[in-house]
Amino acid sequence: MSRLNEENLRIARQILSRYPKKKSALIPLLHLSQEQNGMVTNEAMEHIAELVEVTPAEVLGTCSFYEMFKRHPVGEYQINICHGISCHLLGAEDVLEHAEKSLGVKEGEITQDGKFSFEGVECIAACTEAPCLQVNYRYVNRVSSDEFDQLVTDLKNGQNTQIPKHGTLAKTRQNIQSEKLAGPAEVESASPPVWLQRNKEDQ
Amino acid sequence: MSIPLITTSRWNIEDGHTLEGYLRTGGYQGLRRALEMTPAQVHEEVKKASLLGRGGAGFPAGIKWGFLPPDVWPRYLVVNGDESEPGTYKDRLLIERDPHQLIEGCVITCFALGLSQCFLYVRGEMAHGQERIASALNEAYEHGYVGRNILGTELSVDVVLHWGAGAYIVGEETALIESLEGNRGMPRLKPPYFPASIGLYGKPTIVNNVETLSNIPWIVEHGGDAFAKIGAEQSTGTRIFAVSGHVRNPGVFEVEFGTTTFRDLIMGDQYAGGIRDGNTIKAFIPGGASAPWFFEEHLDTPLEKTTVDNEGSMLGSGAVVVMDETTDIVKACHNVVRFFSRESCGKCTPCREGTNWLEKILDRILNGYGRPEDIDLLLDVCDNISPGISWPPKQTTICPLGPSAVSPIASALKRYRSEFDAYITSNTDTPVTVNGGPA
Amino acid sequence: MTEIQQDSDLISVTIDGQEVKVKSGEVLIDACEEAGVDIPRFCYHKRMSQVGMCRMCIVEVDTGRGPSLQPSCMMDVSEGMVIDTQSEEIKKIQDGVLEFLLINHPLDCPVCDKGGECPLQDQTMAYGPGETRFVEEKRHFEKPIPINDNVYLDRERCILCDRCTRFADEVVGDPLIQFIDRGNSTQVNTFPEDPFASYFSGNIVQLCPVGALTAKPYRFKARPWDLEEIESTYPNPLGDRIVVQSSRDQVLRLQGLDSEAVNWGWLSDKDRFSFEAFQSEYRLDNPLVRGGGLNKADKSGTGLVASSWAGAMSIITESLNGADPDRVAVIGGARLTNESQYAWAKLAKGIIGTDHVSADLGDDLQPHVLLGLPRATISEACQPNNTIVLLTPDLKEEYGTLFIRLRDAAKNLGVKIIELSPMRTALSADAAVSLHPLPGEIGNVVQAITTGDIPREIGGISGEDLSLAHSHLKDTNVFVIVSRSSMGQSEEPIIEALTSLQEVDNCRFLPLVRRANTMGALDMGMAPGLLPGRNTLSSGSSVFSDIWPNLPTESGANTKQILQKAADGDIDTLFLLGADPLTDFPDKALAKAALERTNTIISVDLFVTPSVYESDVVLPAASFLEADGSHTNVEGRITPIRQKITPPGTARPDWMIAAEISHRLGHDLGVDTPEDIWEELGSRSAVHGDLDYRKLDHLPDGHLITATGRIPFIPAEERIETRPVDSYAMRLILGRRMFDQGTVTQMSPSLTQLAEKSELRINQYDFERLGIIEGAQVEVSSGGASISISVKVDNRVRRSSALIYSNLEGADPRELLIEGAHSIDIRIDPTVKESA
Known about the structure:
heterotrimer, A: alpha+beta, Glutaredoxin, elongated, C: alpha/beta, Ubiquitin-like (UB roll), Rossmann fold, 6-stranded mixed beta barrel, 21% strand
């Protein structure tokens, strides 16, 4: 079952309530689903289609546009090695080559224990820390071959507890208490916001 | 020179990202000040500041705000935090290290323009940044800086944190809106040229970059005039530049806008500290991967929008990537072209097919299968994407992504054509596989 | 009206150095085309939104701020604009785009269905470079994959123009095909295991500018240069315009013709692929007679045997010679062309002398409703800011292209739709107000809406919703589209509703009919009491009496009355003109009894239907592909039907059959060609007088009949009391599906598998309330009758009502109908029985 579980469904409803149009919640819900399952399955897309009231094909159309959504299994730790221009200038190709040797798999493949997969990715905005990488979107800066191996070992042995399993994007979520929520600005509401009306009268 | 740090003042404060740390260092004073003013007065201060957009295009924010059509409601604010331009690296730090400053900027902007809801679109890969801004938002809601009846006033506006999911093109503002609507992030047709008239859900929408909005609290607190006094006449305030590549001390620096030169930034000891290992500079990208490259003779150009435009490139997203003498120019060129090829959304034929073709030709050249005619072919394909290969580029496409792939090729060939020739002539007899036969 | 341009609507622009006048606000690419400058394009299509994706149509435009490159599909013309479509730069850009499109396009033109009619191929031939500079491996995808039962997708050929995906999403609201993946890897596809289940899927094949989308019925059948084509009309109630394409006397393809007035180039799949049925081996191609052995006519025989035309005719003349005209009747005729209808009306009324002639089958609106209300065209209704009241079932099922037009009106023209349908439909989401009154209650609901006299609740509709609907009737032009929405509801409540709507200022109507050319049948006098040209027997006899010598004096029987007479033994000879009362007439038992007691039944048809099977003489008729004539659509629009192929065997046009029978009865019908018929009719029909039959082919929107009031609408006199549904019962809705058990679907190999079996559909809520399991076989009863049927959840059906599609194979819901009842309440026995 890769439909959203009860807890995630509750979160999904909360997310949905923040947008004037349901489809806007599509990407956040895909993230939520990927967090639950480690990837985005067809069944999950069908469930999200129900929730945002579009067809599964529309969900797939959006989902497949964004590279963070994995529609095939990846390792528990997805290592994204930056090969943007700054990292390229400082040896990204060496890191990629080393990763292949060290993990014993090619780009896009998963290690036999299911723990690791890696790929070269475009700039991850840590250019002064080149060459850099992300494990499940957590940064590792100025990485050397030795550091790479150490990282893999630590993750394998459970000694690195900072990095959650693949799919978990942010450990802290936005959480708006209902009494603090201003409420979505409905597209049909055709009057200026109240503070503007008052100020107009003042002027 | 003693300019104040406007946007990065809390980067080195341990708890600058928390509400406590933010308040202790003067946070939310801009919002309090704004709430004592009328919305129109706040807008006026931003106009006076002549704040240029910090996303890439460098359009004056106050003027962009003025494009909102009167009496069309609701209006939305969309924060562009999808920073993905290679070499660019500032919005992430603003989000991670001073999230409340951004939130304050958003709330002030909504107040000033009557924007009923704000969506903070943060690049998906920035997990840490999202945690930081989510925590900050939760605190801000808790203490009444965001949400219903902000600071006890009639101002009620939500700031909704939205995650991206990995697509460079979404940094283009109409693609960002598409993405926020749950669609594929493909740029919309222009006109209308600005989402200010038809944006999110077809309603007037202001799309501003993270750094742009992070300037707002300071401007409102200290006044637009004070901001405009800093920097050059048309490039006011400070700007954040990320200097990376072959420099001694790569880093992200807030500098006075318009007066500082590339030499200061790259060679200056207080900034990047010069080329590594005592090497010489071969080329540098002055404003993100889309920008045509600069060379040594451009070092004394000031970081000023108009000047850089006139010299045939752009300040873009404030990303300076330095290449020293050891750089393989063909590989660097291939790297940047590959980026645009992979990030093309696929909408316009010339970009979808052309950038991929350019990548394939460069691949071939690098792999020793280059043919002498490939140089002309590269340039002609470039010409078919961006007619005339001029600057600013002409486009056969909706957005500038396709033409951006032309920049590195045109730049590299202009100065270092011999390096391409070297790859080609070293492999004269290599057969080229022809698939599919003649057209 | 719209065609005539006021001078003030014209502006001056300069195209390639020539100053020309173009329509203000027009899209540049269209303006250029009208000025004779053709700009190449792939993604632009004037019936869909602009996406500017292919970039082929880029031109240089100067609006006073210096020349700039602009896709001509994205820009409207403005005064003084200077356009260059021919400059060196533009040529180079267009060549460049073409080259880009070709680098990944396979060179399988010799085996591609599109080869020969392919814009990409044409452009390449015209401007292409001749040889490729792309030496790398082309993009590869698995070769054609089916995206539904009839459409194949070859992603390698696709140039990503967004036409098919846009059509699916924008035009018909079936976003089941999408762009998937990104950039150079972008492909069009469906969600896995979720086919492009659209009633309109064939349109994307027609739209595809390359050979990426192909339709199974046409794949590898012909090369475009072998095709001959003719513009014609599909005989459905809307009269969708089509292009019939054939090769070697075989129709291979029907394409939609872009008619501004009607179908905008679109067709439903049922119509598009139905040509298979008309050429199937099941077509009647020779006369049949009831026989007792090989080629031996025998009235007591049990089967139909082949006959000569002479043999068949002799049985007919035998039964008609000296017959009492009052004992002869004709049912049907809606399948026929206007010309054939005239010939048959003349034969029946003018020669044989019976007025028992009726094209209806008891399931349509009566002639006075169809002819008596001030009529509107589709385009008149679909004007900005109008309000359209829909008293119809789901238009998508039976009136596909009208559904498309209304969807467009609601989405793009600001037309407000007040939908009053028995259940949620494909238009509900776009309607300003979508209400679902209980069957039988429509009269009460509409009265509340029109008068504004709002009760707390009526017919299952809340006062609040009624008020909202009422508000949309104010200060606007109101158009009513009406049909017999459910056989489970009598006609009276609808007439009651129309009576109320008539009171609304300037309200105009578009009544829909169930069968192809019912409007023509009425205008040609194929209804009791009617003569051609909306003359009546009582007042118009003198117009025709000189050429219709035996005109009866008394008004005759409608179909229900004819069947009653026949069942009583009062009919000796019954003609069935493409009519199948056993399948279609609501009272199945009456139809059966009638056919059993009638001495001689003569069917003129294309296929063997259940009623044809019970006939004594069967005459094979030519279909719309095989005979010339014309068609009258629900608007009263006459358009040509043109012969493309020869009829099978000895089948012949219906009018010719009428002429033959007349001849054998000793009367010259006076018609040797369809033109003759118009000559005769035109001189006598005030309605048709201004129609020039020879010019019909050249009128893009056909000829519109605009006579109203000759046959007055008869308003409802009594009010039907509201009748709430009790908590043990469910109100019955009888709907119709596009793909059904009718001959066209069943005889078309491409369509037959799309027809479902009959099911009882109810809301999830009622499902749970009754404790039924989906798919279970339940007993449904009403009055004394009951049927066994399987159940399905369908949340489009409101609570306390139940839907059965009446035209599907399986349980026949006609058993549940009660004579004289305005609505039917059924009871469901939820005791689960073994599935049949």
